[in-house]
Amino acid sequence: MPLRPIVRYPDPRLKQLCRPVELHELPGLRQLVNDMAETMFAAHGAGLAAIQVGEPLRVFIVDAEIAGRPPTDPPLAFINPELVLLGGATELTEEGCLSFPGIYVPIERALRCRARALDLDGQPFEVEGEALFARAMQHENDHLNGRLLADYVGRLKRKMIERRLQRGDVEDDGR
Ligand SMILES: [Zn+2]
């Protein structure tokens, strides 16, 4: 069952603090990451965190092309990531999220971001990205700490977003 349903706001599972993956769990993680990749592609997303398919683990993926890899590569998987550097100027851009279909929120993010994480073999790696890649890492890392688009807006706008998503009449344009 590779395609998984995407958990949508305001499902309370999205608000939890995700836990680190333990080393002995790594072998079982490959299937989860494959499922996440298929789910992200099917929804035309740029990135996806494990909690968005209901697994409260510190794991996210970013689309290969956005991560500066050949587009035929699998998404870049980050296990137990840490953002070790946020730098450069900041940029205010509208951001979407697969857990908020049809909703876009302007969010100010650093234009440069460096992350340290484990790969699926448990090997540590570091990667630095700019612009969209930097934004994607910051967005996905937010998910691991239960931080969502709705946390970047005021109370009234948050209520509007909740109502819109609960009505379920938004067109799903997949961002
Ligand atoms: Zn998201």
Structure overview:
With 175 residues, the protein is of the alpha+beta class. The protein has a single domain (12-167), classed as Peptide deformylase (Peptide Deformylase, Alpha-Beta Complex). The protein contains three helices and five strands. It has helices spanning 26-42, 131-144, 155-167, and strands spanning 47-49, 59-62, 76-95, 105-118, 124-130. It has a five-stranded antiparallel beta sheet with strand order 1-2-3-4-5, with helices on both faces. The longest helix has 17 residues, at 26-42. The radius of gyration is 15 Å and the shape is globular. The structure holds zinc ion. Zinc ion (ZN) binds at residues 97-99, 139, 143.
